[in-house]
Write a structure and sequence with these properties.
single chain; alpha+beta; 4-stranded antiparallel sheet
C-alpha cells in the first residue's frame, strides 16, 4: 500500500515540474526536453533606425509648420527618442544605427536653422542632447533659437500726431514670452528705445502712412516689420484720452478729420 501511495505522489510531482511556469520562455524547436534552442538574430541597423526615426520624423513635421510647439509635446517626443535609442544597446548593430540617426538629426537641425524654424530647431537640439549631452556642436544655434523664441512680440494699438513736436507717437502692446506677460510701454516716436534690458527694443521707423512700423531687438540686432495694427475703433476711442494725460500734446488723425468736416459744413 505504501509503495502505491509513494508512486502516486512521485507522479504528481513530475507532472507539476513539467508544466510551464510564469516567466518561462518558449524555445522554438525544443521538444520533450531534447530539442535544440534556436538562436535569435539581433535586429539589423535598419530595423533599429525605423524605431528611432518615428519621433524624429514627427519632430521634423512640427518644425516645418514653424509654430509654437507645446511643452508637453516636446517632452513626449524627446522621451520617445531617448527610449528608442536606448533599446537593444548591447546588440552588435546598435552603434551603426546610432551613428546614422545622429547624422540624420544633425542634418535636420542645420536645415531648420537655415530656414529659421526656431521652435522645431530647439526641439531637435534637445533630442540631439539625449545622445550627446556634453556636445557644444549646437550651442550657438541653440542660443539663437532661444533668443528668437523669447524675443518680444509687438502689436500696434494706434498712432497719434503730435502737432507741437511735428512727430507721430506710436502706441504699442508688447508681450514678452520669457515673462509670460504683457508690458506697459509709453508712447514712442521714431528712434526711441523701449523695454528694460535684456528685452530692449527700438522703433526704427513708421512704414508708409502709418501702415506699420519697423523695430529692432537690441539683444540680437534683428530688425523686422510689425504690421499688426489693432482696429480703428479701439484706436479712436483710446488715443485722445491717453494723449491728454501725457506730456506730449496734439491731435490724432480722427480729430483732424472731424474738424475738417465741420469746416466743410459751413
Amino acid at each position: 500500500m505504501n509503495r502505491v501511495w509513494f508512486a502516486l505522489v512521485a507522479s504528481a510531482v513530475l507532472l507539476t515540474a513539467c508544466e510551464k511556469q510564469p516567466g518561462d520562455i518558449d524555445i522554438p524547436g525544443a521538444q520533450g526536453g531534447g530539442g535544440k534552442a534556436q538562436e535569435v538574430e539581433p535586429p539589423t541597423a535598419e530595423e533599429l533606425l525605423t524605431e528611432m526615426r518615428k519621433p524624429l520624423q514627427a519632430a521634423v513635421q512640427l518644425m516645418q509648420q514653424n509654430q509654437i510647439i507645446p511643452a508637453n509635446k516636446q517632452q513626449e517626443l524627446v522621451g520617445q527618442f531617448r527610449s528608442a535609442c536606448g533599446r537593444y544597446s548591447t546588440t552588435p548593430n546598435h552603434p551603426e544605427a546610432i551613428e546614422r540617426i545622429t547624422q540624420e538629426l544633425t542634418s535636420a537641425v542645420e536645415r531648420g536653422a537655415k530656414q529659421e524654424q526656431w521652435h522645431g530647431v530647439l526641439l531637435l537640439i534637445n533630442m540631439y542632447e539625449t545622445r550627446k549631452p556634453d556636445s557644444v556642436k549646437f550651442r550657438r544655434v541653440k542660443q539663437q533659437a532661444i533668443d528668437y523664441i523669447n524675443r518680444p512680440k509687438v502689436k500696434i494699438t494706434g498712432f497719434y500726431d503730435d502737432i507741437a513736436m511735428g512727430k507721430t507717437l506710436v502706441f504699442l502692446d508688447v508681450f514678452i514670452p520669457a515673462l509670460g506677460a504683457s508690458v506697459k510701454v509709453d508712447p514712442v516716436v521714431e528712434g526711441d528705445e523701449f523695454l528694460q534690458p535684456p528685452y530692449t527694443m527700438r522703433l526704427v521707423q513708421i512704414i508708409g502712412t502709418q501702415d506699420g512700423i519697423t523695430v529692432e531687438y537690441k539683444k540680437t540686432g534683428e530688425v523686422w516689420d510689425v504690421m499688426d495694427v489693432i482696429g480703428d475703433t479701439k484706436k479712436r476711442s483710446i488715443l485722445p484720452a491717453q494723449a491728454g494725460k501725457g506730456k506730449r500734446g496734439g491731435r490724432n488723425r480722427r480729430q483732424v478729420q472731424e474738424e475738417e468736416e465741420e469746416e466743410e459744413d459751413f
